[in-house]
# Entry
Amino acid sequence: MEEVRVSGDPVEMLEQDLAGERDAIERYRKRIQQAESLREYTTAEALRGVLVVEQEHEMDLLDALGR
# Structure
């Protein structure tokens, strides 16, 4: 578990959330590769669904930050 960071600044909070989403995206990508290397294709496909949601969160945060 990563260190929990808090902030009273809304922009900083969004930046922290964005960093967390990007970390999660990278982790899901690695897990998908691992699942495929083990020929666990159903697991890899389920993880892809979660990855799509994480990427949508990333886009939402980028929009909120005006990027």
Q: What stands out?
A: Residues 11-64 form one domain. The chain has one domain: 11-64. The two ends are 28 Å apart (CA to CA). Residues 28 and 49 are 10 Å apart (CA to CA).
